Amino acid sequence: MFTQVDKRCELSDLLGHVNDGDTVAVGGGLSWREPMAALRELIRQGRSGLKAVGSAHGIDIDLLCGAGALAASGESYVGFEQDFGMAPNYRRACESGQVAVEDNCCYTLVQQLRAAISGLPFMPIRSVQGTGFEALHPEFKTMLCPYTGERLVLVPALKPDVAILHAHFADRRGNLHIDGPPVADVLFAKASRKVIVTAERIVEPEELAHKGVTIPYFYVTAVCEVPFGAHPTACYPNYAYDRQHTRHYYDQAKQSADVFRENYLNPFIYQCADHPAYLEAVGGRERLNALAAWGESTEQWMRLYE
Amino acid sequence: MSEPIRTCTLGELLIYQIALTIEDGILAFHGFGSPLVQLALHLAKRSHAPNLVLVAGATYAVNPTPAFLTPTSNDFAMSLGAECGLDIEELFDLAASGRMGRMFLSGLQIDRWGNMNVTRLGNAEHLKLKLPGGGGGCNLSCDAEHVTIWTAAHRAPPDSKGQRRFRLVDRCDFVTSVGHRAADGTPRSELPYRGQGPDRIVTDLGVFDFDETGHARLRAVYPDTDAALVAENTGFDFPVADGLGIAPLPEPDMIELIRRLDPMQIHRRELSHADQNRAFEL
Asked: Could you tell me the residue range of the domain that residue B195 belongs to?
């Protein structure tokens, strides 16, 4: 139970809760509400040897690979869909052996998290048997169901060391309100040993209660207010996905690890002392205003994808 | 007045063929990274399947009316107007409990039994290419009642050495999602899955169904393809259905709808370069 009355802290202190070698559950999914500012700070602090677990992800896991922070990936997908295709840093890291390939599937992950949440050693599923995942995950076992005689797959409880989430709103006690698809964030929060959170805005507890609590405070270890903390992924309704910046990211990553370091990691992470410096580097107020103005017209919204 | 529609593109034909596999009144789910399927579901719901429970991939939005198709799936533009949203566990529970009527899956490798690989090329010791991974495809290939397989990259032109890199392969390097026989050859009927497995493969060259042994069987070709061309581009031998026909083309109003739903033509990104301008006279 995390019961401190005030869990607010600086971004640098927030990421102090992550240790080298931790299993981390990164919130959001694909180009939606990734805790990108937190991941950039994690990289600035030089954390390494992490194992990422989750469902369908993109730039977040690719960035951790590109910065050499990751040692294993148990995600179900890492890529840029029809937008840019395969994730270049992730591919390189997996193919060179730097990152161990421990791919998972979404429902398998859900059931493993549920086992942890329920205090059970495992959960059964029907699926997975007969696929390549059985060999990839020798820890999955099978048993004959004592009630029906069916052969079921048992997947062990998954208790990440730390969940890293980005929410729309938090209060000082750590109550969280998330708009739109929660993806696996609620499961991550309940299953993980620690939950660290960046929020677009920290509001009074009364205001948070009025909006509705998506994740109750006692799961949450620490919070930090970080406006545009999901950039370049989207955090609707606050701001849309920054495709232009993501294209720049992808173009550098695709060329080589060295080009990526020189043209992306250096200018946007290592040479940015903090998150406000990053926001300036990606175009400052003018760019952020354009992303926040997605709702003014469909035409304006569509132009963000050009 | 806009010009009357007299041709249909390959993309529009594929969307229509995928839409034809969708029954009315079921719950169907499209994953992420699949614009052809996303459009097929919206086309089906606005034509022959008005009672379809359409669940959008990544957002898990139910019956959304997207502002426009985006190149990323977890985008508010894709879930706009939804009746409600599900969370990840609810969506997969629906499939696990037998309430997902149809799912759509693809692969960089697809074998004759409908097994697919989107995990890796090579083996664990010699990883040649790390693919993005299958999302929830593994689970849903077992749990969803029916599966439509699609690919827009069936055509496998020979490279400079005359080698073809097939999409429809003799054997998958890794089985991410399972078809009618497991990786070790076990028939699907001996595994306690809820779902019945894939019943169609819609490709850029034609449409397959599966025979009683669970083997892919060519069922229809397109106005510019034939069985010999399909065979030349396929890494395994396959039976051909009696009365092999030409797949029907969509009606002009369906084509108009697709163009309205996808003003940025995101779905064309699934097509090969050579297929970008392939079109059929209506």
From this structure: 104-247
Per-residue confidence band for B231, with pLDDT thresholds at 50, 70 and 90: very high
Contacts of A56 in chain B (CB under 8 A): 32, 58, 74, 135
Residues B196 and B73 in one domain: no
pLDDT tens-place string over residues A26-40: 999 999 999 999 999
Token digits of residue A198: 């960046």
The tally of CA atoms less than 13 A away on the side-chain side of residue A156 is 9
Give which of B29, B74, B97, B261 to mutate to test A binding, by max A Cβ within 10 Å.
Answer: B74
CATH 3.30.565.10 fits A11-103+159-292, yes or no: no
Based on the structure, what is the number of domains in chain B? 2
CB atoms within 10 A of CB B212: 6
Mutation target among A32, A91, A106, A187 for the B interface, most CBs of B within 10 A: A106
Asked if residue B98 is part of any domain, the answer here is no
The verdict on residue B282 lying in a domain is no
Structural domain boundaries in chain A:
11-103+159-292, 127-156
- Of B57, B55, B44, nearest to B15 (Cα)? B44
Going from the C-alpha of A228 to that of each of A80, A179, B15, the distances in angstroms are 21, 15, 37
Q: ipTM score of the complex? A: 0.96
Q: Give the sign of the dihedral formed by CA A93, CA A99, CA A102, CA A108.
A: negative
> CATH number of the domain that B184 lies in?
3.40.1080.10
Q: Do B8 and B56 sit in the same domain of this protein?
A: yes
The residues, ordered by sequence, that sit 6+ positions from A153 with a Cβ below 8 Å of its Cβ are A124, A125, A126, A127, A128, A129, A134, A140, A141, A142
pLDDT exceeding 70 applies to what percent of chain A? 100
The DSSP bridge pattern shows strands A77-80 and A85-86 to be antiparallel
